[in-house]
Write a structure and sequence with these properties.
12 helices; globular
């Protein structure tokens, strides 16, 4: 076990909620507001952990297990992902398949917990979430397979560190550009961001992710929110590892560039949410299909 890999995982567990603050502060700047405090996500989590949980009599153990399984799946996926050019804490050949399925397991746990409430409203949100996931998962897999073909390895620990500034300057540049764009679209849809979903909406007909967690409260809601922050960090780290590769050999410099890339990506997400509108539900499949076409093209270019 490498100390630097463990340090990156610890940094992710500690700083993941801060990415959401960067997004919110960016949106506040565009709206002419001051924005909430930087540490507000941590205060919210602490407040929820101090509260008690209330469970409906119609729910079963599936509802209570949903937040725990979802957080455990995302945390394990985080350990399989390399940060800053260093190998992952847990890595092996073919771990990219497990990484995708761990993200799917977290989503499945949240959706099943929503259906277990017996609420038609939460069931509507779960059905929309699963429908979007059926289109987003192939995009994620195609994008990762294109990178695997380009770098010659099926391990995330070998794939992402192999992407360097030299890789961008060689013939692999079109593949990396297409894969990065496709994975960025996956980042937005998987984290319920605009233009696919609005994490701040309270309009019943447009709620997707938030509709699935309406019955969660107290510590359970804290686990859901913290798991969402870790998921945002994990997918952001994947995009940053491809688009902002720093392989200087100096751990401190690589870590600084990585953190700067994560902050800049969060700013980009905030800008997108401030300047674009949410897509109509019927337009989302078309958008994801286009992202899948980009990922498929990236894979085809590696087969030349």
């Amino acid at each position: 076990m490498r100390f630097d890999s463990l340090a990156y995982v610890g940094m992710a567990l500690l700083l993941a909620p801060l990415l959401q603050s960067v997004i919110h502060r960016t949106k506040a700047q565009f709206a002419g507001r001051r924005g909430r405090p930087w540490l507000q996500p941590y205060h919210d989590l602490a407040k929820l952990l101090r509260k008690g949980a209330v469970y409906s009599r119609t729910t079963t153990w599936v509802f209570r297990a949903g937040p725990i399984v979802g957080l455990a799946a995302v945390a394990t996926a985080l350990c399989l992902l390399p940060h800053g050019g260093t190998p992952a804490l847990l890595g092996f050949s073919g771990d990219l398949i497990l990484w995708v399925y761990l993200l799917g397991l977290g989503r499945f746990a949240t959706a099943v917990a929503a259906v277990d409430t017996g609420s038609s409203f939460e069931g509507m949100g779960a059905s929309r979430e699963v429908a979007f996931a059926a289109l987003a998962e192939p995009v994620l897999l195609l994008g990762l397979l294109a990178l695997a073909r380009q770098t010659g390895t099926l391990s995330l620990s070998g794939m992402i560190p192999s992407v360097s500034p030299d890789t961008w300057s060689r013939a692999g540049q079109p593949v990396l550009v297409l894969a990065a764009v496709a994975l960025f679209v996956v980042l937005l849809v998987e984290n319920a961001r605009i233009p696919f979903d609005d994490p701040n909406t309270h309009l019943e007909l447009t709620m997707i992710h938030e509709a699935m967690v309406l019955d969660h409260g107290g510590p359970d809601l804290a686990l859901v929110q913290y798991g969402a922050a870790l998921k945002l960090w994990a997918l952001s780290a994947l995009v940053v590892g491809i688009t902002v590769p720093c392989r200087s050999g100096t751990p401190a410099l690589d870590a600084a560039v990585f953190v700067l890339g994560m902050v800049l990506l969060a700013v980009v997400v905030g800008i997108i949410e401030s300047t674009t509108a949410r897509l109509r539900l019927l337009r989302v499949p078309q958008f994801l299909t286009g992202a899948g076409a980009l990922a498929a093209l990236a894979l085809l270019l590696t087969l030349r």
